[in-house]
Design a protein that fits this description.
Helix content: 25-40%
Strand content: 15-25%
Structural class: alpha/beta
CATH class of the largest domain: Alpha Beta
Number of domains: 2
Shape: globular
Low-confidence stretches: none
Number of strands: 23
Length: about 450
């Protein structure tokens, strides 16, 4: 349990946030699938990403870790190609990581050996039929051990002489994890693998597959739908990867600078992939003073410096401020901190089309609404989001994280701007994505 108090000083200076979690997972996976040794600099050494490393070590991949003189975490992955994996001696344990579980399923589905995969209690309650269905259509032999559509997952392996078949799949939701699982299986399939989505989800897998030498293209229609098309056949080649800072981690400090008067914070080398940077769009619409400079990255993952200076936030000039539709997948992980900011803004904020929050590490919609209510905010829990009646004076409260790292960090930021004491019931859950979050917060606020 951690106790926090309101602060009366601005947040100023420079900050480099840890490497992007989504990209770190994919870098290890594709490096393992490639021929040769890949070097990953800026790897996020957090609970979720360590789960990925441990799983691939169990599959026979040699992975070395070290730190540079400047403190960056470096991982060397000795890839064995698409067919170089070995059967794990036991169950592959993915911890709290949905990304590890779902993406690795796409690889295991194509292997000639059986596997069993499970994670912690949260993972064993998260929906897996969304990957079981399309992978089964490709010819994979995969099932839920308890027939409940959740982990543990059992993979019987591809029968001798068989291989998977490419699929033309219309994903009903914009989910990067589902899309990625299908594309990774597509590397082993006969024929093209095509995934259509109703809106752009994270495209890190497509970007990285292309960098590793895969024949893949990504298209977007005028209607906003997207299609990823993978032509299998070419082996992946090892490469050097530098991972930018995670915008999902940066979001908490961006929000703090928006809340605390006279703040002026520069965040260095933050990833600004357009499928992830929706929070910058929303905050600018709310009146935040945000400047993006030094953009780099070209055709690979783009990154930039983000400067945030305090400015009083506002809502929509007429009617509720609404966050919905195709914007939601670009900021799904940032909705907890956006909801916290909305509680301080004197307007009604409506968040819709965010039902994916119901099946994250916890039911994030319920957790956000419960904790905002405890702080004195009037908020309605609706099926696919929430309605926040912001602007009332908030106060400290006992925050229930439900073991969810993003709930813990979001309400730690809220605690900086409310009267009274706030307690976070489980601060250790931040180790999933940002192990030094509270250390960094203390440094910036004292």
């Amino acid at each position: 349990m951690l106790k926090l108090q309101r602060i009366h000083t601005p947040i100023t200076g420079e900050l480099t946030v840890p490497g992007d979690k989504s990209i770190s997972h994919r870098a290890v996976m594709l490096s393992a699938l490639a021929d040769g040794t890949s070097e990953i600099t800026g790897f996020l050494n957090s609970g979720d990403c360590i789960a990925t490393v441990n799983c691939f070590r169990s599959l026979g991949i040699e992975i070395e870790e070290r730190r540079t003189v400047h403190g960056a975490h470096v991982v060397n992955v000795h890839g064995q190609g698409l067919y170089g994996f070995k059967k794990a001696a036991g169950t592959l344990y993915t911890g709290n990581s949905g990304t590890t579980t779902r993406l690795m399923a796409g690889i295991l589905a194509a292997q000639p050996f059986s596997s069993r995969v499970t994670g912690d209690a949260s993972i064993e309650n998260r929906p897996m039929m969304r990957i079981i269905d399309p992978l089964t259509k490709m010819g994979a032999r995969i099932k839920s051990e308890h027939d409940n559509g959740c982990c543990p997952l059992l993979f019987d392996g591809v029968a001798p002489g068989d291989m998977l078949t490419g699929i033309n799949y219309h994903n009903p939701v914009a989910s990067a994890q589902v899309k990625s699982a299908i594309l990774l299986s597509g590397l082993y399939a006969e024929g093209d693998t095509i995934v259509h989505e109703p809106a752009p989800s994270r495209n890190h897998t497509e970007v990285m597959l292309r960098a590793f030498g895969a024949d893949i293209r990504h298209e977007r229609t005028h209607a906003g739908t997207t299609t990823s098309i993978l032509h299998p056949g070419d082996p992946l080649r090892a490469m050097k990867i530098t991972i930018p800072g995670d915008i999902s981690s940066a979001a908490f400090f961006i929000a703090a600078a928006c809340l605390l008067p006279d703040s002026d914070l520069l965040l260095k080398r933050v990833g600004i992939n357009e499928t992830r940077s929706g929070i910058l769009t929303v905050l600018k619409q709310m009146g935040a003073d945000i400047t993006v400079t030094n953009e780099k990255g070209g055709a690979s993952e783009p990154y930039a410096d983000i400067r945030v200076r305090y400015a009083e936030l506002h809502g929509s000039p007429s009617g509720p401020f609404t966050i919905a539709g195709k914007l939601v997948p670009t900021l799904i992980d940032e909705l907890p901190i956006i909801a916290v900011l909305a509680a301080f803004v004197p307007c009604i904020t409506v968040i819709q089309n965010a039902e994916e929050l119901r099946v994250k590490e916890t039911d994030r919609i319920a957790a956000i609404c419960e904790n905002l209510t405890a702080m004195g905010c009037n908020v309605d829990d609706i099926k696919d989001g929430m309605v926040i009646y912001g602007g009332d004076k908030l106060h400290g409260a006992n925050i229930k994280t439900y073991g969810d790292h993003r709930i813990a960090m979001a309400f730690a930021i809220a605690a900086l701007a409310v009267d009274g004491e706030t307690t976070i019931d489980d601060e250790t859950c931040v180790n999933i994505s940002y192990p030094r979050f509270f250390e960094t917060l203390t440094r910036l606020t004292t």
